[in-house]
Amino acid sequence: MTTTDTATSLRDAFEAAGQGHVFRHIDRLTPSEREAFLAQLAEVDLALVARLAKPTAEGKHAGGAIAPAPYFPLGGDTTDARAAGEALLRAGKVAAFTVAGGQGTRLGWKGPKGTYPATCVTGRPLFRVFAEQIAAAERRYGCAIPWYIMTSPLNDDDTRAFFRDNNWFGRNPADTFLFPQGTMPSVTFDGKLMLETPGSLAVNPDGHGGAIRALHASGALEDMRARGIEQMSYFQVDNPLARIADPVFLGLHAGSGGNARSSGEMSSKMVAKRDAAEKVGVFCDVGGKTGVVEYSDMPAELTNAVDAQGRLRFNAGSIAIHAISVAFLERLASGGGEDGSAGGFALPFHRAKKKVPYWCDAHGKTVEPSEPNATKFEAFIFDALALASRSLVMETSRMEEFAPIKNASGDDSPASSHQIQSNRHGAWLEKFGVKIPRRPNGDVDARIEILAETALEADDLADASLPREIKAGEEIVL
Ligand code: UTP
Is the CB of 99 under 6 A from ligand 1? Predict the structure, then answer.
């Protein structure tokens, strides 16, 4: 087909779908802009957009259908699990997987979030924090841990440049596999596609659930197979305390100790919710399957429900840390499509009202709205839990593993993350008799950073040379 034929058939299809307005500036585009725009339009699944744009009550959960998900509690016996997880690591069967394709709009950092200076004393960027942790685990278990990183078409170039500029953090570039996820068009509240410029649609990355399609399409799954990888340690780019390739979690996930919930397909870590109002997804049993119910989808009477001891019944907050098997991902990636699914990859899309920059004809420029003006569609990785035969949830300590950086200030901000980092490292040192200054609320009153090469967990400090005391306000790196 010639470009003119392509343009005509695309225009017909878009007009038939009520989206013909996106062609309104086509005549002023240069030939190469026009070609790029037509290629972008050709990727749009108009039927899917039409279906998703219809407001429905989908996603809301009826009160009776869900129960709290059981979980492996903090303090349970993990001796066997640790041995099993360590064996997997030593055999080189574990990869690290970071989802780093998000836009990080709330943080407002110009650049991929993984480049954000995250640690409380040295300001190490998130990608460096993870690279050092992976390197320390590789040394400990005498194995290679290949690292897969999902970017998006919007930040892939900048992410690659950051790795190149930092000499791949000393890693063999062949063991770090970056690949972009897909995108979805944003729509106005009346379901219309939006232009970001005269020759491009406003699109957003298709959510961390886009990982399943992208792992397959990029060849990452094939690469894992070729390397003999069986399990992936999944974490988000904005949590500097994520414990990568935790042997205890991997061992429980892979079925050590005969835990009835583990299938080796997909497992999750949780922390006890701070209080009923905390806005995190909660692990629930939904129709006999483990799943995460989003805060906004949870009926208030369940969010606030307490047991006979006054504890929250639904207290298993998701911290977006999973273990996922390659075989499970391969099964999902080859699965048939469902209505509203991510193009044959079986994860539904969720809607969110967001501020999306759009092309304003009256102003002749791209405008940043001050209020949400559009619906974005995103798939969520935790929806894959429902597709696993069984699924284990393991409790962990918030202070040990969860200090996300999402907002510029307040909760889940750099400041709150720094405090949690210092609290964790202060507690590690106290275990070995170091005197740590604390404020009346229990927070550590110093900045303490412990590098991955020094310790991956508290007990690694047993043989380290430690100070006797840290003074209030002191900054220390070990
Ligand atoms: P968030 O839901 O916090 O979104 O992502 P975000 O895009 O980083 O930030 P905001 O909402 O714009 O402020 C949680 C994790 O999922 C990844 C993010 O990079 C982060 O690690 N993610 C999110 C993707 O990889 N792709 C996406 O499409 C969305």
Answer: yes
